[in-house]
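In response to reviewer comment 3 from the previous cycle, which asked for concrete evidence that the modeling workflow produces usable outputs, we include below a single protein chain processed end to end. The sequence was submitted unchanged, and the resulting structure tokens are shown without manual editing.
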Amino acid sequence: MPYFSLCCLLATMAAIVTAEKPYLLRLKFSTRPGDKSYSSRLVDEFTAHFIANNPGVEVRDSFIAPNNIPHLSYEEQEAGRVPEAKQSEEDQRHFKLASDLTGELIGASAVVIGTPMFNWGPPSALKAYVDRVVNVRTFQTPPVNLISGLPITLIIASGGPYSSDAPNSRPHMDFLRPYLKQVFTILGSSEDDLLFVNGDPTGPIDRGLLQESDASSGMSRARALLPAAAARIKRGDSGKSEL
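The workflow returned the following structure tokens.
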């Protein structure tokens, strides 16, 4: 099932926004400002559908703009491998940003990530985020699976056609979706937890060859998936997240 078929997911399950920790965490990794970003606009439209289905649930942007997350220093990398109970004051200082980002992620009820594809892979800001949240708290042997059951929606825009949804796709050149799937699976996500919404290709829109409103555009095809993607996440009072 390529990249977790939306139809199969919706036919068999609905994620639950828990009463204990009801917030949607949004992470946007586009370098394009405001309405020039395809992935960021799709995140905003997903959010509107989510709010309609889950009134009263907080929508929270990360406490630090994702594009401002610095890449790991050697000291921060080493601190992220030291069990928290054994961290020195210096380790704690170097680990603080990673720990805060990790707490924000595992404390969410649902997550939506919007990102472009850069040169067939993740933008460096997204890689910097991943390097912060993969740490001693989340990645151990045996695995701790702290994000198991957390519904994560991954909205991806790219100039060329690389997703399974795009016509004339070149999936052999896509190193972004497999990377994200691997990262979140290692941290505890199941296939049912992850859902890709693909907004590609956007290149024809940028070049004026296709209107964004055209039904065949990558943006239109992505928009058609957003209501169902948001509807799979429901607020419940069971006190736990279920799929």
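The CA atoms of residues 159 and 203 lie 4 Å apart. We consider this sufficient to address the reviewer's concern, and the full set will be provided in the supplementary archive.
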